[in-house]
Amino acid sequence: xxxxxxxxxxxxxxxxxxxxxxxxxxxxxxxxxxxxxxxxxxxxxxxxxxxxxxxxxxxxxxxxxxxxxxxxxxxxxxxxxxxxxxxxxxxxxxxxxxxxxxxxxxxxxxxxxxxxxxxxxxxxxxxxxxxxxxxxxxxxxxxxxxxxxxxxxxxxxxxxxxxxxxxxxxxxxxxxxxxxxxxxxxxxxxxxxxxxxxxxxxxxxxxxx
Length: 209
Fold this sequence. Notes:
By secondary structure, the protein is α+β, with helices and mostly antiparallel strands. It has helices spanning about 5-25, 30-50, 50-60, 65-75, 80-90, 90-100, 135-145, 185-190, 195; strands at about 105-115, 120-125, 145-150, 150-155, 160-170, 175-185. It is globular.
């Protein structure tokens, strides 16, 4: 027993250290990330197809903005408070803000563009007005379907982040693209276990109608 006991203690200690090491590795599993994408994809698609959002894009389209005008606005985007207010102060931006505040999801930003890539509504304030040179706009337009960017796990910030983008069409014509930035922190992963995540469904709310 005197020789067996130290060996047993070493084995138990090794298992404990192994378990602790695994507990410290919070990078989400593929099953978790797949479900996470699906949950947020459903939310973004529901919002992109909402009547108010489509009406907002339709009204904007009637202004018949040119690409030259878009570029001009882009040059003064960071200094024009009135232009920024137009983008973050409208009703759709207010809806974005409410959805972002819902801690069941991990959307941290919304950008709604028109068919040229110009920002129509957003929350919070994006760094650029024109999104037309970004993959998150180009890819859904090019593929004419839902797009998810490359996802990454940042060890330093312990966060899993990616973009989701849904093109918005009406009668076969592109109206714009809805882009959502997802940033899943370690706190969210620990608070939202897989069993709870799979039960999370998009519920019809005033924010989505």
